[in-house]
């Protein structure tokens, strides 16, 4: 399985914004079009389309926190389209994302947050070494790795 992270361009923009999670997950992740718009306001943000071979299957966004007391690198968005979930693409993509983040932010603690009710995401992130800090930020549980 060849999972790659690719730039979002005019050639794949509409495919990227058409990706969707399941109805049960929609409260847990912002639509990709919102995240792409956010990345234009926060130039530190890195956005990528997730591909399995030549098929777009997901989206990710990371960057430094823009709050005064925390400039840690954060995984801001990570999603796999509902049609491609449960096939191992998320795990393979997360490995690529973490490699990219650690190459951009060597020797730094990586952070992410998720809704406390998103038990599947919590279990998923914990398999990659993220630990629940017990902190709540913007109504989400904060996790750190490294």
Summarize the structure.
This protein is of the alpha+beta class. The chain has helices at 13-18, 32-41, 89-104, 119-126; strands at residues 3-6, 46-52, 55-64, 73-80, 110-114, 131-137, 140-145.
Describe this structure in words.
The protein has helices at residues 13-18, 32-41, 89-104, 119-126, and strands at residues 3-6, 46-52, 55-64, 73-80, 110-114, 131-137, 140-145. By secondary structure, the chain is α+β, with helices and mostly antiparallel strands. A 7-stranded mixed sheet has the order 1-2-3-4-5-7-6. A hairpin with a 2-residue loop joins strand 2 (46-52) and strand 3. The mean pLDDT is 94. It has a single domain (3-105), classed as Aminopeptidase (3-Layer(aba) Sandwich). 29% of the residues are buried. The longest helix has 16 residues, at 89-104.
The percent range for helix content is: 25-40%
State the helix count. 4
What is the strand arrangement across the widest sheet? Answer: 1-2-3-4-5-7-6
CATH architecture descriptor name = 3-Layer(aba) Sandwich
CATH topology assignment: Aminopeptidase
- For the terminal residues, how far apart are their CA atoms? 28 Å
Order of helices and strands: EHHEEEHEHEE
Structurally, the number of domains stands at 1
| Major sheet summary line | 7 strands, mixed
Class of secondary structure makeup: alpha+beta
Q: What is the CATH C-level name? A: Alpha Beta
Q: Bin the strand percentage.
A: 25-35%
What's the CATH H-level superfamily name? Gcn5-related N-acetyltransferase (GNAT)
Cα-atom radius of gyration: 14 Å
Give unreliable regions as ranges. Answer: none
* Multimerization state: single chain
Mean model confidence by pLDDT? 94
Principal-axis shape equals globular
């Amino acid at each position: 399985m060849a999972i790659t992270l690719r730039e979002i361009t005019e050639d794949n923009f509409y495919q990227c914004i058409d990706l969707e999670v399941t109805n049960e997950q929609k409260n847990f992740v912002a639509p990709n079009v919102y995240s792409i718009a956010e990345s234009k306001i926060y130039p530190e943000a890195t956005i990528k389309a997730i591909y399995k071979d030549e098929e777009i299957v997901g989206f990710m966004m990371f960057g430094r926190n823009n709050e005064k007391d925390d400039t840690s690198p954060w995984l801001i968005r990570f999603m796999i389209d509902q049609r491609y979930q449960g096939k191992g693409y998320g795990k393979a993509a997360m490995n690529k994302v973490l490699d990219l983040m650690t190459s951009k932010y060597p020797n730094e603690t990586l952070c992410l947050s998720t809704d406390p009710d998103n038990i599947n995401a919590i279990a998923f992130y914990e398999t990659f070494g993220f630990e629940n800090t017990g902190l709540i930020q913007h109504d989400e549980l904060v996790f750190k790795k490294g």
